[in-house]
Specification:
Order of helices and strands: HHHHHHHHHHEE
Shape: globular
Strand content: under 5%
Radius of gyration: 19 Å
Structural class: mainly alpha
Length: 196
């Protein structure tokens, strides 16, 4: 049974490599296709307009942000596939965030076409985690307007930390020549940190 699972995993990697080869040009990959890890994240190249209007540090930070969002998805989707994000786990996470707050999160994500109906709890939780942590770490000023019903941001962060090592994900994708995410300070009247 283990051998069959290993054979399926090997076939999945080969199929993924073949699909990647169809989607990309060899120079876009930058390495030999055979040398790539089992899971590959594809990130769109900045447009010529972006390349001309932004400095390199800003572009690299934007790519880091995109990769971070995708890595959150990757980790949580793997955890769900492996049974670590079952119905009971989701109910517990939703309970910690708050059912009313989670219903608002679902409505916001649907409105912004980030989750399509029916958008089960697992799909909503995963997209929420990715977007919330992206904003918290790269654009914290947008958190209060994106998710206005969330009051206890430390509780949300602690809930998400049950499933993710956020610091490791940030460090893993951080470009060498970009400053780390800034230290936080509490915003007046909220529990949301501001990065300065």
């Amino acid at each position: 049974q283990q051998r069959a699972a290993a054979e399926r995993a090997k076939a999945d990697v080969e199929n993924a490599r073949a699909a990647l080869a169809e989607l990309t040009e060899p120079e876009e990959i930058g390495e030999g296709l055979r040398d790539l890890a089992g899971e590959v994240l594809l990130v769109s190249r900045p447009s010529p307009r972006e390349l001309g209007s932004r400095d390199r540090r800003d572009l690299v930070t934007r790519l880091w942000r995109t990769v971070f969002h995708a890595r959150v998805h990757q980790v949580l989707e793997r955890k769900a596939r492996e049974g670590g994000l079952g119905d009971a786990d989701l109910r517990q996470r939703i309970g910690r965030i708050g059912q009313t707050e989670f219903d608002e999160i679902r409505a916001i994500l649907r409105h912004d076409d980030l989750v399509m109906p029916p958008g089960d709890d697992r799909e909503v939780y995963i997209e929420f985690a990715a977007l919330y942590l992206e904003l918290r770490n790269f654009a914290p000023g947008l958190l209060l307007t994106t998710f206005p019903g969330l009051d206890d941001h430390e509780q949300v962060a602690a809930t998400l930390a049950q499933d993710l090592d956020v610091a490791a994900l940030l460090a893993d994708g951080k470009p060498a020549d970009v400053a780390a995410v800034a230290t936080t300070r509490a915003l007046a009247g909220t529990s949301m940190p501001s990065f300065s």
